[in-house]
C-alpha cells in the first residue's frame, strides 16, 4: 500500500421531507451532477437505476477529469442505496432513516470493505496530493451533496 486512508467516511443531515421524496432524489444518479461537486455527468446503462444496474461517471477535481464505473449493490427502497466503484473498490451509500416528525435523516458513507486499489492509492498520491488532502475534499463534497439534497427535498 502506498498511502494510508480512512476506511469509513460518513456525513449526515436532517431533511424535512419524507423518505419517499429523499429516496427519489438519491437514486436519481443522472441528476447527481447538480448536487455533487465531483460528479460532472452520469450515464446509467439501460436508463433504470435498480439493483445490479451499472453506470459510468465523469468526475472532476479542479482541472482533472476521470471516468469511473459503478454498480448498484444495494437497493432497499426508501432505506438504503449503495454502489461500488470498480476502479477503486470503494462503496458509496445513502441510508435513509425516518424521523419522528415525518422527515428523514440521510447518511452518506464511503466505505472500503475490500480496501482501496493500489492504482487508486498511487494516483491519489500523485494527482491529488495524497489521502489526507483528497479525503478532506471528499468529506467537504459529501457535506455539499447532502446540503443540496436537503434543499431540493425541502423545496415546495
UniProtKB/TrEMBL annotation:
It holds the Pfam family Polyketide_cyc2. It comes from the Bacteria. This is SRPBCC family protein. It comes from Nocardioides fonticola.
